[in-house]
UniProtKB/TrEMBL annotation, chains A, B:
It comes from Anoxybacteroides rupiense. Keywords: Magnesium, Metal-binding, Molybdenum, Molybdenum cofactor biosynthesis, Transferase. Belongs to the MoeA family. This is Molybdopterin molybdenumtransferase. Pfam families: MoCF_biosynth, MoeA_C, MoeA_N.
Length: 419, 419
């Protein structure tokens, strides 16, 4: 009656899932809706930046040669023949010892090759004409932002898969992307199992708990860049359950179920997978929490059977679902961002399985520190709210002590890791 | 003609703005829309967790005293009188040397005080009755998750201002928050100034550039948790401009303008502030980029005059607007998350003003490192896309060299700093 399962290492389990990861579809959105999405194509420059030689300051555009002999004792006088603002173009030709009053961002008039900042020029009128005097020489090119010095036309500025942050949004605007090709959001079906589950709006009754996993996963789906599709609670009857899943599958990219994957009498997901004709990739992983995490595939579509235990469910999503979501979003670094931190508490209990300890990582003086949050019992929901990382303690070791440098996988980082 | 401005230190400028920061309004949203919002009220437990003594494993609930003499040589036999799944409650009273088959999450039957895991019990049938034998003693409380051991009813689990991440969402579900009181998103009007600005969909023409700041700020507004209100481009005429601002103000919590705050002939924001009757809090900050950043207040409503230079505009938002937004969202840590990192490049040029260097901070071996991204010329838009931090180099120093531990303010962190 008690099914024997063979636990596989975490890395191997992730690898098995990633065999089915593929890039997703694209869609066009207006630039005003691009923030927070992922580029589905490389972003390239449609013009040089700056697009023309321009002034970075308010001041006067001059011919540098005219200023060659300027000094404190012998200022050089230039006639100001025109004023141009940003967005305007000089109308007149600039001759020897002439200058143009120029605003920040305005194009350098033909013939001029330097800009004198406003505060370095003394301006005055004489006989109805405007003059400036300058007391030092300028070299050709002084105070000019040259065409293309920031970006050359055709340059790739951000690769597909890039998260559209405010800086990328600015680039998109600069280069005329009034519409942006972004990755379509994968649709992820979420179904809960468990006779003990009440909906969030139901009052508590003896023996029952509210369904928190579905709401938690929904938020994890959103955080990872996908769209949750709420499939409610699966019916208790295997036939109805099978029918519900078969009906839901065509409309989603992945299906997540929570609960029902253990070896208890009421854990019927293994039966469902069998009746669906799905191939089970693994049904036991050498990790805590989440050892019963089960993943199957049906015609290349992944079915994630996450544990009904909230912490195990949470970890299962981040380890196995997030990377396939991010791959659909064109990321080349689809896994959680991996780094190291100094452990702030002892973890001396040896464990044959790799532990994923919900942790809060903080930076002090440029050094990262990891504090486990709450007791690490896998049924504690409250610690998830404060965790921003998983501390990864490999199995088969003698435990870890305060001060050890340990692996941490960051949960909130928009960046990821390739492996 | 050249107005003299008195630069104030960055910290003082921030302080002057924060005098006008206030908490915002609240609204109710369904739990399914709560992810990514901010709690407007403390989240407290409406019941103990676990809500009853329950089994963390599949197994058998027993009376521990019955197992006192169990050993390998002298197993103890118990009669299994009932089976209860999660969500069910035991119907029978358990007498001496009786046990109940129990599933993960099910309530411990009255009279039982320990759980034997499935794999530690040998189960068999005899005369139509089910028995188990166990080969070791159990103590009272073994393998029981006790009522309230995770959370006690009434406990505050997350304070107002908390960002609703997947873990908080799980808590909200667990404690029956089918609707959640969240902070209303502040509405921020964004208007661009500058005759040189083309809309993103317009083709480039000589002397003009596309308006990237409005789109960048729009994304910054979203990242900080607020709602952007696009007010387009301000008209060139001061009267029309004044009218446009007066019309927009009642509908927004803050107004941001980009450009027009410098001392050029076409920088008319100072005039507008004067005609509005707004009090200018400062119009020069001892920082680069963004020294011309101007902030005014009118009847307590903040008017942010950010520089038209993209990098200065970006920094101005994060330093001055973000903390007032986060304060409206009830955060007690409204400023950018501040920490330190090891500088990976020399910055030997001394500067009287504090520099905010767009940087990429990475973690290697538990240590944070800061690399400036792109050349640090304030008119370079491309480096903003890759920046995830501002390296802060105080003015009045002799410069910084590779290997120095410097201040970094993180841009993408959901967390913040109190100061």
């Amino acid at each position: 009656m008690l099914e024997k399962r063979n636990p596989i290492p975490v890395a191997e389990a992730i690898q098995k899932v990633m065999l089915y990861a593929r890039e997703g579809e694209k869609e066009r959105v207006p630039l005003t809706e691009a923030y927070g999405r992922y580029l589905a194509e490389d972003l390239y420059a449609d013009h040089d930046v700056p697009p023309f030689d321009r002034s970075p300051y308010d001041g006067f555009a001059i011919r540098a040669a005219d200023s060659a002999l300027a000094s404190l004792d012998h200022p050089v006088e230039l006639e100001v023949i025109e004023t141009i603002g940003a967005g305007q173009v000089a109308a007149k030709a600039v001759a020897a010892f002439q200058a143009v009053r120029i605003m920040t961002g305005a194009p350098i008039p033909d013939g001029c090759d330097a800009v004198v900042m406003l505060e370095l020029a003394k301006q005055y009128e004489r006989n109805g004409k405007t003059y400036i005097s300058i007391k030092r020489p300028f070299r050709s090119g002084d105070n000019i932002s040259f065409q293309g010095e920031d970006v050359k036309k055709g340059e790739v500025l951000a690769e597909k898969g890039t998260f559209i942050n405010p800086g990328v949004q600015a680039l998109l605007a600069t280069f005329g992307y009034s519409e942006v090709k972004v990755a379509q959001k994968p649709k992820i079906g979420i179904a809960a199992t468990g006779n003990e589950l009440l909906d969030v709006s139901e009052p508590l009754v003896p023996g029952k708990i509210r369904n928190s996993n579905a709401y938690m996963i929904q938020a994890q789906v959103l955080r990872s860049g996908a769209t949750p599709v709420d499939l409610g609670k699966l019916p208790d009857d295997p036939d109805q359950c099978l029918a519900a899943i078969e009906q839901a599958l065509p409309d989603v990219d992945f299906l997540i179920t929570t609960g029902g994957v253990s070896v208890g009498d009421y854990d019927y997901l293994p039966v469902i997978y069998e009746r669906l004709g799905a191939e089970v990739l693994f049904n036991k992983v050498a990790m805590r929490p989440g050892s019963v995490t089960t993943v199957a595939q049906l015609d290349g579509k992944l079915l994630f059977g996450l544990s009904g235990n909230p912490s195990a469910c949470y970890v299962g999503y981040e380890l196995f679902v997030r990377p396939v979501v991010r791959t659909m979003l064109y990321s080349s670094t689809p896994h959680l961002y991996k780094t190291k931190a100094i452990l702030l508490e002892d973890f001396t209990k040896p464990n044959p399985f790799t532990r994923f300890v919900r942790s809060y990582v903080s930076a002090q003086g440029g050094q990262l520190y990891a504090s486990p949050v709450g007791m690490d019992k896998s049924n504690i929901v409250t610690s998830l709210a404060k965790a921003n990382a998983l501390t990864v303690l490999p199995g088969g070791t003698r435990g870890f002590v305060k001060g050890d440098l340990v692996d941490v996988w960051l949960l909130d980082s928009e960046e990821g890791s390739a492996q």
